[in-house]
Amino acid sequence: MEKMAAVILAAGEGKRMKSKRPKVLHPVCGRPMLEHVIEAAKSICSEIIVVIGHKGEEIKSFFADAVSYVEQKEQLGTAHAVMQAKSLLPAEGTVLVLCGDTPLLTAETLQGLWQTFKDTQAAATILSARVPDPYGYGRIIRDALGNVQKIVEEKDAGSEERAVNEINTGTYIFAVNYLRRALSEVKNDNAQQEYYLTDCIALILQYGGKVTTHLLDDYRLALGVNDRLQLAQAQQIMQERINRQLMEAGVTIIDPQSTYIDAGVKVGQDTVIWPQTLLRGKTYIGEGCVLGPNTEITDCRIGNGVVIRHSVATGCVLEDDVTVGPFAHLRPHTELKTGVKIGDFVEIKKSSLGRGSKVAHLAYIGDAQIGQDVNIGAGAIVVNYDGQNKHQTTIRDNAFIGCNSNLVAPVKIGKGAFIAAGSTITRDVPDGALAIERGQQVNKEGLASRFLQKKVAKNDESRQEKE
To answer: pLDDT tens, 122-132?
Structure first.
């Protein structure tokens, strides 16, 4: 492939977003807008140059050395922004110029733009689109033979030109020699006193260079995000794309309009996703799973045949045939081996459960290493925090933890050990041992009625006050 550099314009303040965050760092389907643009550009470009300005340090902090940066200290137009990257442009080859707030542009779109540039042997190729309402956009004006004649901005267009619905999307490929010459000669003799990249197109035509267009099949892909409304529109369009691609690959999504899946999430065939399910971040879902409804999964790796209902999982690894929920919370660094069952109102944090182990309901497990075929009863608590430090609990294979037990870490429960219900365990339990730790039960004959009578009398007094 011929050497091509991408110049991504990301210096604008984005005032209409009304945000402390740089506009291009606002997420669409889980990734900053600028990241979507960078990933698309990488499909045809060997070098990515980002023009930063407003809060540029935040952009640099996010992307680090994944791209190169130049700074546009004053916002003096799109051509001025590209001028800042002049020293980094290749001596020969081509330059892709695009905006950092156009997250819907795909690798396929840019590859098509590049192919048109090559096939037409152009000096510049413009990504264009036909839109129902072209108001506010620069129009592509052609001569009688259909050749590009100029780009006219809305404020400069006559009535006939305003009727043209083919617009400039702000994405271009230039032959670098033509671009360098145009950048050195472009003027700012306009009302805004800014240097416009569209004027570079006019100069290239004057030089005798050929200017062509590549027409978008779906004009929505050129959507630039300038406010929260357009951000929501971009989110919706991209979510439709992600969900459609997954369904075409063999995933069942019961209600795509109420299912939210981030870009980059992988889902295997024959998985069923119920409504109000969120799959976020770097999540991988295997085949034949059932997810949701009302489930949020973030940065998890999930095997085949897993069922998760009405639950939240973050930063976890679940092997095959695990069942979770309803109403479970799996916190980071949780690892569930094959066949583990986690039931309702169970919270697990930074713990590993071996094959076939069960925590059926109403339990908290934190900082624990649990072996195979362990049964943990209702109300069991791993007491991992002493107010200053977290401590480790180890439960070996085939142990049984009775209901309402407290395991006060650090503690080890041996293989095949049995913890009697209601026990508070503070010392290690050997293999095969029965551990019982309870206060002595005392029965006071005939005293129950005294307390019950007090309760009845109090209820009568309260009722009389209300009357």
So the answer is: 999 999 999 99
The residues of the chain that CATH labels 2.160.10.10 are 250-435
> Is 310 in the active site?
no
The one catalytic residue in 80, 310, 361, 391 is 361
Distance CA 55, CA 153 (A): 29
Compute the distance between CA of residue 118 and CA of residue 459 in angstroms, rounded to an integer.
88
Q: How far apart are the C-alpha atoms of 226 and 47, rounded to whole Å?
A: 26
**What is the per-residue DSSP string for 80-118?**
HHHHTTGGGS-SSSEEEEEETT-TT--HHHHHHHHHHHH
The residue behind tokens 């990249």 is 197
- For the structural domain made of 250-435, what CATH number should be given? 2.160.10.10
Cβ neighbours, 10 Å, residue 457: 10
CA proximity to 253, closest of 284, 279, 281, 231 = 279
**Tens digit of each residue's pLDDT (9 = 90 or more) over 362-374:** 999 999 999 999 9
With a cut of 50, list the residues of the chain below it in pLDDT.
1
- Say what the pTM is: 0.90
Q: Domain 4-222 is of which CATH architecture?
A: Alpha-Beta Complex (3.90)
Average pLDDT for the chain: 95
Q: Centre a 10 Å sphere on the Cβ of residue 164 and count the other Cβ atoms it contains.
A: 16
- Distance of alpha carbon 195 from alpha carbon 202, whole angstroms: 13
The ranges of the chain annotated as CATH 3.90.550.10 are 4-222
Q: What is the pLDDT of residues 11-61, one digit of tens each?
A: 998 999 999 999 999 999 999 999 999 999 999 999 999 999 999 999 999
Burial of 184 (0-12, 13-18, 19+ CB in 10 A): exposed
Burial zone of 78 (CB within 10 Å; 0-12 exposed, 13-18 middle, 19+ buried)? buried
